[in-house]
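To assess whether ligand presence alters the predicted conformation, the chain was also submitted together with flavin mononucleotide. Input:
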Amino acid sequence: MTEIDEAAMRHVLGHFATGVTVITAGTEAGPVGMVANSFTSVSLDPPLVLFCAAQSSETWPEIQAVGRFCVNVLGNRQELLASRFAQKGSDRYAGVDHLISGHGNPRLVGAIAQIECRIVAEHPAGDHLIVVGRVLEMEIDESESADLHSPLIFYRGDFARL
Ligand SMILES: Cc1cc2nc3c(=O)[nH]c(=O)nc-3n(C[C@H](O)[C@H](O)[C@H](O)COP(=O)(O)O)c2cc1C
């Protein structure tokens, strides 16, 4: 079997453009969250989505223990928020406007869509875990400004806009 180099894999797969999400959960110790661009929809009936959590993530076990999460789809003005929620050892919520939903999940103000889920399956996949969530509730930003509806993009290792 040909060995696939990690850097080459990052480089080639980076040509697949994605949106950017922050996966949040409300723990007893307070809100947690992590950036994920591995999010995708899976099934309409039942309504399922997934994201992949790194086995090395320190935030994932906290979300896992809660059993629920909110997928906050970031808009094109939220690059700083994305950087903050990908940084280790910082207070990710400092100064970040958020509301706690009826399901107990933090909803980040300004996200263009929010999808609240219950964890229904976890499938190990190499150095990641495929996390499947059943959608409980969804919302999109209905504000007038079309610009706010434009997503933040991740492409070739960097943030971009449409
Ligand atoms: C654009 C972008 C996308 C990311 N996507 C994922 C992802 O899909 N899954 C993941 O586990 N980490 C992803 N990360 C990394 C995590 O956000 C971050 O490194 C991680 O949460 C580190 O903190 P933690 O140990 O508290 O989880 C991504 C980072 C960036 C900047």
